Amino acid sequence: MADIMDILLSTTRLVTTTQLNHQEATTVVLHQELSSPAHDVWAACTEPGRIQEWFLPISGDLAIGGHYSLEGNASGEVLECNPGRSFRVSWVMGAGPDSELVFTVTPTNTDHALVELRHTATVDPDLMGTYGPGAVGVGWDATLLGLYQYLRGIPTGPSNPLPTHAMQSFFEASSDAWATAAIAHGAEADGARAAAVRTTAFYTGTDSSGAS
Known about the structure:
alpha+beta; 8 strands; Polyketide cyclase
């Protein structure tokens, strides 16, 4: 449990506004330093055989211009790749909004690396008001937790779920952290905190808002 909270506390979160396909979009940004060399982090996030060990099975062509699919999750196109350093992909979930993901890994010394994850999406204002940036950000916190555990040799993935009480605490803390990031970006504090409660309920399966 300590490791879970440690990675939450050591992750930096930002919320920014930008343009995507000539529309106003919201970007959530996560920075996390991992105690693994950059080449190992890169391999864990780009080699299909390793991705499925901590995230999801992936299929398709991972070269620039190729299309990929994560089983039961997102699909998209590989838009850019700087081998060993960064990639940019489109990120499509069902009939969801336009979305892009940029992943960057930077060595900080021989055995540590800084990961930056940027997810930009055009989001319906009502949906943003209901859940805030945590609707996306909490999922990426969970993803970085899986990567962190995998690189440390801790069993992870769907076949090795964390205890329910630990995930409850994780989702609450992550949602609250994203509320803080939203407030720093200019969101009204009470509304951001209320959105965090709804985001926690969504991730824990207790959401009764009827949102899909």
